[in-house]
Design a protein that fits this description.
alpha/beta; Double Stranded RNA Binding Domain; 3 domains; four-stranded mixed sheet; 15 helices; disordered N terminus
């Protein structure tokens, strides 16, 4: 795990006798945070995010999921939150690495700017330095910036999780400062059960404990009554993952972390083979729940899209087959797109190549594409920021309507798109999607 040197945090920061879940990179997504809160965590951390990435995002109220999303230009959801974690989520900003540890002037400048510029409390997290004197000096400079608390990972930047955590250094920092100090780094050798959280606080002389790996391995560690069986925890996690449309790769990663030394078990091998959200849920007996939830969300999404569509947009569309579809490149096999599948199928059936008609909505400059195949028209009711993505969505609607493969991860090889043909056509089109060469109006 790469440690950042400075993390800005916003949220309800009440540290005395509080435990905090601080999941590692890729783990702090909404489903895991909500699960930890259910089990007794007082505050939860989001994934570590770079400030420039957030500046590029737009804030979107997601009526389908009842969430607030911050969406990147490529349509990837960078941060998602909901009412359930309001005032209990800590937002992390960082610089991916420990370089700032050697530049205390910059640390002080950044934190001072944050404290002046935001209305929420600001905290930061550091690793210990090579000497106790240097660590205390840095901690005192950070305290003077006005931060609400400081978290101390009790390892030096070159030390890894297998190295013992330096509880004595964390205690020295806690005794030297007047602001709350949060101890971190005890997941492997200090915190195994809920009772160990208090013991770690005592050993470090701190007011709070921040957990990453221990909470990731079994979030029910926060239960005062004791941890729950892992199978029950994973099922509850999956239900949140489905409910909030967590990406399948992240869901699989989190479940693999929970299984740990059981990855080679029959259950672990089934999880390893699963690719889609539905397949993952099937492994844990949650397939029916997944399908019912997805169907309910699709219906809600269709209703939301129909309400938001401008009355003058595409009025004459009674002859168009429509679905609420959005193309996400991460769900498809490398170098193959739905447009390529549709093009190859049309050639095999000796049909005219697909004809795409794409329009842009003046209100928000989003696109919607209609593809005509064999005299029938197909369109996604979901408007998209990119013209190419809108065309891919239209191709998916057509393929699904015809019961054809579209190149999703986990699909059996259809033989429609041959590797050599992809390479040859890619060269002819400058390396772009061959299907982008199809005619447009």
């Amino acid at each position: 795990m790469k440690e950042d040197t400075m993390r800005g945090a916003v949220g309800r920061l009440c540290f005395r006798n509080k435990t905090i879940l601080a999941p590692m990179v890729r783990v702090g997504t909404l489903p895991m945070r909500l699960l930890a809160l259910d089990y007794g965590a007082d505050l939860v951390y989001c994934e570590e995010l770079i400030d420039m990435k957030m500046l590029q995002c737009r804030r979107v109220v997601n009526e389908v999921l009842d969430t607030v999303d911050f969406v990147a230009p490529d349509e990837r959801v960078v941060f998602r939150t909901c009412q359930q974690e309001k005032e209990r989520v800590v937002f992390q900003m960082g610089g991916m690495g420990a370089a700032l540890l050697s530049d205390p002037d910059k640390i002080e400048a950044i934190l001072s700017t944050l404290v002046r510029g935001v209305s929420k409390p600001v905290t930061c997290k550091i690793r210990i330095l090579s000497s106790l004197a240097d660590t205390l000096s840095l901690a005192r400079r950070i305290e003077k910036t006005g931060v609400a608390a400081i978290a101390v990972h009790g390892r030096r930047k070159e030390e890894r999780p297998q190295h013992p955590v330096h509880c004595d250094v964390i205690r020295a920092v806690s005794e030297a400062l007047t602001i709350p100090v949060i101890s971190n780094g005890g997941s492997l050798d200090c915190v195994k059960t809920h009772a160990d959280i208090t013991a770690f606080c005592t050993a470090t002389g701190t007011s709070s404990v921040m957990l990453a790996r221990a909470a990731m391995w079994n979030p029910s560690i926060f239960r005062q009554e004791g941890a729950l069986p892992l199978e029950q925890v994973m099922e509850q996690y999956l239900q949140y993952a489905v409910r909030y449309e967590n990406h399948a790769s992240n869901t699989k990663y989190c479940l693999c972390q929970m299984l740990r030394d059981r990855l080679e078990s029959p259950l672990g091998r089934q999880l390893h083979a699963a690719q889609t959200c539905t397949e993952i849920c099937d492994v844990f007996g949650q397939g029916q729940f997944c399908r019912e939830t997805q169907a309910r969300m699709e219906a809600r999404r269709s209703a939301t899209q129909s309400r938001s569509q401008d009355p003058d947009d595409l009025c004459d569309d009674t002859d168009v087959i429509k679905m609420a579809i959005k193309f996400d490149r991460r769900d498809y096999t490398p170098q193959i797109t739905p447009k390529m599948f549709l093009l190859e199928w049309s050639r095999r059936e000796k049909l005219a190549q697909p004809l795409y008609h794409t329009v842009q909505r003046p209100l928000d400059r989003f696109f919607c594409s209609t593809v005509t195949v064999a005299g029938l028209k197909y369109r996604s009711s979901v408007w998209d920021k990119s013209k190419k993505l809108a065309e891919q969505a239209a191709a998916i609607v057509c393929l699904r309507s015809l019961g054809l493969p579209e190149g999703r991860l986990g699909e059996q090889e259809s033989g429609l798109v041959k590797k050599r043909r992809r390479e040859e056509e890619g060269e002819c089109n400058g390396g772009n999607d061959p299907a982008d060469a199809t005619r447009e109006t």
